[in-house]
Phenylalanine--tRNA ligase, mitochondrial (Clohesyomyces aquaticus), 424 residues
Amino acid sequence: MNTPSTILSAIPRRLHLQPDHPLAITRQLIESRFLDYKHHNTLFPVVTVKQNFDSLGFPADHVGRSRTDTYYLNKDTVLRTHTSAHQADIFRKNESAGYLISADVYRRDAIDRSHYPVFHQMEGARTWDRESLGQSKSLEEAIWADVAKIPTHSINVGDPNPTFHPERNPLQECHSAGEVEAIAAHLKRSLEDVVVAIFNAASSAAAAAGEISASQDEPLKVRWVEAYFPFTSPSWELEIFWQDDWLEVLGCGIIKQDIMDNAGVPNRLGWAFGLGLERIAMLLYSIPDIRLFWSTDPRFLSQFSSGEPIRRFVPFSKYPACFKDVSFWLRSTSSAAGGLSRNASSPVDFHENDVMEVAREVCGDLVEDVRLVDEFTHPKTGRKSFCYRTNYRSLERTLTNEETNELHERFRQQLVDKLGVELR
Ligand code: PHE
């Protein structure tokens, strides 16, 4: 078990279901683009290792499985790290051709303004049944007929790679090139339609805030890039050009046929995608810090309403930040000083995510980011030292000096107690 109570206490929050919460509004906006899909919005976050990893073909040594990345409740049970954990179960139920899942997901990760150990994903999938097609139509024709039903758009989409590639992004043996071209077209058009809907809502918000020129000067630019996931092939990611950079917003691909076979629906084939709701909501509302989603401050919550057009978030005043450094030596590796012994347990044991977690546990949402600023290896002993800079800032008030000093002192002490480091 490596799951602190602060993480468990997020489970009942279900932000994606809170009326008028920006994550719930973002969810509804996307759901409105997938009309006949079945929605699953209350799936419980505790899942088996089998659901989260094995059923999706994650290799036994995949980093995602490690205790540094995933919250375990016991050796067979985790807090889901992605909504894909439910794919096999939903395919097995075989209730609808398309579905959407929105849910909280949990990952041990860095601390900064766009990462939080609990966040929300939306997953979607659409499948077709080879058997249930009428005699007159081929599967390909049937899928292309569905592609034609998706609203068209006129945005600038970059798609430089072939739909599949024998080495980089292979077809599965059981799929023909024509089938994959048709499914990929349905997938890409469906997701482009979502992005256009979000961008239109965001531009109206910008216009309402008097920033018309910003959205007029910069037409929406998106591009498809090749990707890899253990449970899809070929796979792609969609990126949006945002504030001078390409931002990855979703991963997707053609579902591996093994998953369908194991779920008892070997005749079905299709696509799946997964996107981060926080990331989309941050774009949509210009929300500057991911911690805000967890705020219960009415100055935050009162700015969102599902019945009204999207309006830009107006930050309440930015309270001062205060940074403090902590430097420490990793646990010494007794006999390994000569560097010959490879079996010493430290410093291999050290993982940055453990520092992040101690910071979260001690400081809660009063920590804005934690960054490695210096790293040093003693030339003689080979011992390693790190210096981390912690930025303390409340989103709701000014912290007093005493308070930050006290937080930082507790942080330092917990690093010693929990990770066995030696402060410098
Ligand atoms: N589950 C993947 C992730 O969390 C996203 C994904 C979903 C990719 C479905 C492909 C298909 O990164």
Q: What stands out?
A: The domain at 322-423 is CATH 3.30.70.380 (Alpha-Beta Plaits). DSSP finds twelve helices and 15 strands in the chain.
